[in-house]
């Protein structure tokens, strides 16, 4: 089992910045991919970004160029830096760990509003 604990959500103004972090613990093995998804109210869960065990990053079309994902392979953490926040970034953000199975964090609310 893998446990994921997210932190860093909250309220940010349009154009502002916010950082989300996720720490993985438990049966964490090499060869995994960690990333973020989000789900806005009334919408389906959407892919945001992920980073593989060898550092390859992939971003969703709606966030490319504004969000940056990074990992600390020693601490088993993944961080999502959000810049130039938009109202449409408002959602619950979920950390994801994928190896042989998919694991999800409990989610953290991000609200972009003035």
Sheet of most strands? 7 strands, mixed
What is Rg?
13 Å
Shape: globular
H-E order: EEEEEEEEEEE
Q: What oligomeric state do these chains adopt?
A: single chain
Class per helix and strand makeup = mainly beta
- Beta-strand share of residues: over 45%
Features:
single chain; 114 residues; mainly beta; 7-stranded mixed β-sheet; 4-stranded antiparallel β-sheet; 11 strands; 0% helix; 54% strand; globular
State the gist of this model:
This protein is mainly beta.
What does this structure look like?
The protein is mainly beta. Helix content is 0%, strand content 54%. It contains no helices and eleven strands. The protein has strands at 2-7, 10-12, 18-26, 33-39, 46-51, 57-59, 67-72, 77-82, 91-98, 102-104, 108-112. Strands 2, 4, 5, 6, 9, 10 and 11 form a seven-stranded mixed β-sheet that branches. The termini are far apart. 30% of the residues are buried. The model has no long low-confidence stretch (mean pLDDT 94).
SSE diagram, text form:
Layout: E1 2-7, E2 10-12, E3 18-26, E4 33-39, E5 46-51, E6 57-59, E7 67-72, E8 77-82, E9 91-98, E10 102-104, E11 108-112
Parallel strand pairs: 2-11
Antiparallel strand pairs: 1-3, 3-8, 4-5, 4-9, 5-6, 7-8, 9-10, 9-11
């Amino acid at each position: 089992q893998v446990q994921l604990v997210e932190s860093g959500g909250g309220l940010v103004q349009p154009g502002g910045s916010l950082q989300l972090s996720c720490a993985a613990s438990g049966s964490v093995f090499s060869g995994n991919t960690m990333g973020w998804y989000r789900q806005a109210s009334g919408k389906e869960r959407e892919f945001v970004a992920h980073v593989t065990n060898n550092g390859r990053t992939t971003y969703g079309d709606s966030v490319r160029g504004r969000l940056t994902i990074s990992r600390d392979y020693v601490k088993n953490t993944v961080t999502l830096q959000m810049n130039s926040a938009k109202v449409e970034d408002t959602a619950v953000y979920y950390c994801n760990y994928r190896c042989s199975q998919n694991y999800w964090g409990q989610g953290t609310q991000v609200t972009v509003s003035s």
